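User: Sequence recovery, please. Input:
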């Protein structure tokens, strides 16, 4: 039987929980799209469920990404990563074989080290999953998909600030261009919303993250309606990370 291999890499901090690559790629769902470890939360579990039509074999390991000012992220070696968390974490098992319609669980543990500087640390746990699917009687397709889930470790009570630095709405393209900036020793994870003068939500973007690698990030949100002449842009931090909520008024 002939085999075709395809490889793709997906960051779950910006995409949905389930990734289905074309042509029968590994179809694996997860019970978490990110982790946050603290002094009080040192052990968590990652449950992997195989929704495909064949067994999935997955290997687990850490990778590192640095966000860039403006837009984009780049994969880097650990020594180039800004405040990596992998040296503070352990997980087991390192590989799993998941029959179709079944689940397997990996256990992640945060191990506190002495003399750690207060702040947020970040690495990504990568699941490299291989799955085959039968196509008719003659062909088999093998697909490899990399799933990357961000893992944050928070040491102490890091201080910092976040603000919406600027926001502009282009009436012709119906797009809001927003710059969010940060300072301090902590990361920010939340969502951006745009509401019009009547309070109706016309745009939302989840998983708006600013790690310690950046001082600002730029985002573009397509708007459902621009009939209003005044809008409010709101950055709302996810509850598990903090309580920050900031507004920015935009007039057309």
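Assistant: Recovered sequence (252 residues):
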């Amino acid at each position: 039987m002939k085999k075709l291999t395809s490889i793709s890499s997906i960051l779950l901090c910006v995409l949905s929980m389930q990734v289905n690559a074309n042509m029968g790629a590994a179809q694996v769902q997860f019970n978490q799209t990110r982790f946050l470890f603290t002094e009080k939360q040192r052990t968590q579990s990652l449950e992997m469920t195989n929704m495909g039509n064949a067994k999935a074999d997955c290997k687990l390991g850490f990778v590192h990404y640095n966000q860039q000012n403006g837009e984009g992220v780049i994969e880097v070696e650990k020594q180039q990563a800004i405040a990596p968390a992998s040296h503070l974490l352990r997980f087991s098992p390192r590989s799993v074989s998941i029959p179709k319609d079944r689940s397997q669980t990996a256990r992640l543990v945060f191990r506190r080290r002495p003399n750690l500087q207060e702040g947020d640390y970040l690495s990504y746990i990568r699941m490299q999953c291989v799955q085959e699917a039968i196509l008719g009687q003659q062909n088999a397709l093998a697909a490899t998909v990399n799933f990357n889930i961000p893992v944050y470790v928070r040491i102490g009570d890091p201080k910092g600030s976040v603000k919406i630095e600027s926001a502009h709405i282009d009436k012709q393209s119906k797009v809001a261009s927003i710059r969010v900036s940060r300072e301090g020793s902590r990361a920010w994870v939340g969502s951006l919303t745009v509401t019009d003068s009547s309070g109706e939500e016309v745009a939302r973007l989840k998983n708006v993250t600013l790690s310690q690698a950046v001082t600002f990030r730029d985002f573009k949100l397509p708007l459902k309606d621009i009939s209003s002449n005044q809008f409010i842009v709101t950055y709302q931090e996810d509850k598990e990370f903090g309580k920050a909520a900031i507004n920015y008024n935009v007039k057309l």
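The radius of gyration is 21 Å.
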